[in-house]
Amino acid sequence: MIKHILCTVSLILLFGGNTLGQAKKFGDVSNAELEMTVADIDSSANAIVLFDKGVASIDANLEVRFKRHVRIKILTDQGLDEGDISITYRDDDPDQKITGIKAEAYYLENGKIRTTKVGRRDRFRNEISDTWSEIKFTIPGLRKGSVFEYEYEMRSETPTDVPDWYFQKSIPVLWSEYIVKIPDWFNFLTYNRGYHPFEAQRVTPYSESSSVRYTNSYGRTVSGIADMKGKEYHYIMKNVPAIEDEDYLNARSDYLAQVKFQLSSYQFPGEGLVPVLDTWPKLIEAIHESKYFGSRLKSNKLFKSKVAEIIEGISEPKAQMIAIYEHVSEVMAWDESFGTYIDDDLDDIYERGTGSSSEINMILIQMLREANIDVEPVLISTKNHGSVIGLYPIQNQFNHTLAYVKLDGETILLDAKNDRRPYNVLPSSVLNGMGLLINEEAKVEWIPLTTGTLNTITDFLSLKVDEKGNGVGVLQSKKAGLPAYIYSLVFDEETNKKEDEDFDLKEVIKKQKFNNSNIRIDSLNVVTDEEDEFLFKVDFNIDFDSGKDIIYLEPMIVDAITENPFKKSERTYPIDFEYPISRKGTIQITIPDGWVVDELPVSTKHVLPESSGGAVRLIQAQGNIIMIRYEFAINKEKFMPDSYSNIKALFEHLVERNTEPIVIKKGTTSDE
Q1: 149 — phi, psi (to 5°)?
Q2: What is the pLDDT of residues 11-34, one digit of tens each?
Q3: I want to staple 71 with a disulfide (CB 3.0 to 4.6 A). Which of 149, 152, 407, 669 is the partner?
Q4: Could you give the C-alpha distances from 418 to 6, 64, 184, 297, in angstroms and in order?
Q5: Is the omega angle on the peptide bond into residue 565 within 30 degrees of 0, that is, cis?
Q6: At 280, phi and psi to the nearest 5?
Q7: In terms of Cα–Cα distance, which of 481, 563, 478, 475 is closest to 523?
């Protein structure tokens, strides 16, 4: 009795009080929901999810049934886009079926609730890929202040299809609830991710008699009445903030509050345990032997003869590697697709001249092997695809392949899907944690995904200022690593003008490098454009704020940080700078004869903990020369949220140091 009372009290505390946002029956829309004009948890929200409830179960026929009911409030005209609905499903074996779609909108008119409905003719099917399709519809009659809701059921014949659940969205969520019922015959791994706490998270046993009918592990049909015992998983989150497009936030799906279910094994009554989820060694072995991946790597006459032609006259192995890389990246056009399945023979793909990201790099791997270079494929997940979950040894977590070369004690990662990137520069999109090495021994080896060279920007600026505050200067800017690659693309005027006929290189460099809007670029020239270095020179004029006897000079004329991108008091998500980088520079300012430095900003230093980055500026004046030396470094690509205050303080420091001008004035003579 006491236990029952305590349980009842806890449920009242959990679900009692203001019920705005809690799941309700379809059509049970309240005046409070319709009269709501602003979201308490986010006054700037254009729309808000009042509730999102999903119930999934594996029934007596061992099929997955998933029902979902969503209700959304439109708060502004900008929120009307939320009424465009897409329900995705798999229409390939084993397929999923979507049924029971209902959708209605509600609004107040003269104090009465009016409704509009989505009919069958308002829905249409769209094929996304060979495997996936979607049902799309738009809620009719939506307006500011409307509430709309929709529900549907998904059925699947395979118990592996227990859906993932995302509690967080691009708009705030008042209430998100997910219930999953799983019989004890099935063993699932559960995985929670995100930075918002659960309001409730519990697992309770259940037992029910059911009429069952299924095909067992021996292919025999089993039917009859059985006691189905299992576990019910119940998750609730309240007042979940919208995930925003913040600066330095990549792979948003990694940070959404979510729960995932992955079938690892099953055991029917009277039968042995059947594993479903492989171990990492077994997965590596399966991928290595797969006819859609590892078995595609085989010697052939085409590659043998082509490689012999490419490396003819080249004896040094690394030079051979570079030549093969440059050949593959030049002759193979990337079709903009990712994936780890190789559908055709590599020589056929090579002759076709186009391929997916993995197909191109598998061609590279086989060609390197024809040159007797030690190389293996590495499966990775790009940043947009999300992070790899170590609990789940499954291939679809990966969507790209790199070539991993071992050469004279050096290891090199290669990605040949772009013909304009040097061999030792990986795109920032692949710098996403660790990659899985696929080898014959099925040994589990995780490869750190780091760029193959230092990313640096080194500037030297010389400036001469006259008595009217007019300056004539020269900037030499040297880039290495990813910055060199990025700037080589910027300076490709022919390509850029094809994409944008208004492209103006001088204006682009002015915005990217210089802080002062009074800069006028006279000439712009590339000095060096090599695989390890990109150097350009800028001749420019600049006008400073000046009076008759005083001039205000900016201490940081190039690469000045004038606004802190980190404005919030705290941050929930990691800060992803994409790649480590170091900026160094020297600025030499010559002031007019007869003028003196009246005010000079102090030298400053700001260092992040554990040598993870920082900024230093040394400034001094001697005679009519002012010398400024500066360095700014971020030494790792990702910082966790507990580092946010330190990162924010660093950028505040950078902004503040650029607000203090150097003041020079006319000197006085002894006669005066």
Answers
A1: -145, 155
A2: 333 444 445 678 899 999 999 999
A3: 149
A4: 64, 42, 49, 21
A5: no
A6: -60, -45
A7: 475
- Tell the residue number behind the tokens 């219930």, with chain if given: 179
Residue 424 CA neighbour count, 13 Å, CB half: 16
Q: 425 or 647: whose pLDDT is higher?
A: 647
pLDDT at 555 (0 to 100): 87
pLDDT category at 271 given cuts 50, 70, 90 is confident
Whether the pLDDT of residue 603 is over 90: the answer is: yes
Integer Cα distance of 356 and 491 in angstroms: 27
Residue 260's SS3 state is strand
**Strands 173-183 and 96-109: what pairing?**
unpaired
> What is the average per-residue pLDDT within 495-515?
88
Show the CA angle centred on residue 83, arms to residues 82 and 84, nearest 5°: 90
Instruction: Return the closest-CA partner of residue 512 out of 449, 459, 548.
Output: 459
Tell me the mean pLDDT in the region 493-503: 87
SS3 for 33? Answer: helix
Quick one: average pLDDT of 90-113?
90
pLDDT in tens, 114-169: 999 998 888 999 988 778 899 999 999 899 999 999 999 999 988 889 999 999 99
Mean per-residue pLDDT, 630-641: 91
Q: What is the CA radius of gyration of the chain?
A: 31
- Compute the distance between CA of residue 554 and CA of residue 516 in angstroms, rounded to an integer: 8
One DSSP character per residue, 406-447 reads EETTEEEEE--S-TTS-TT---GGG-SSEEEE--TT----EE
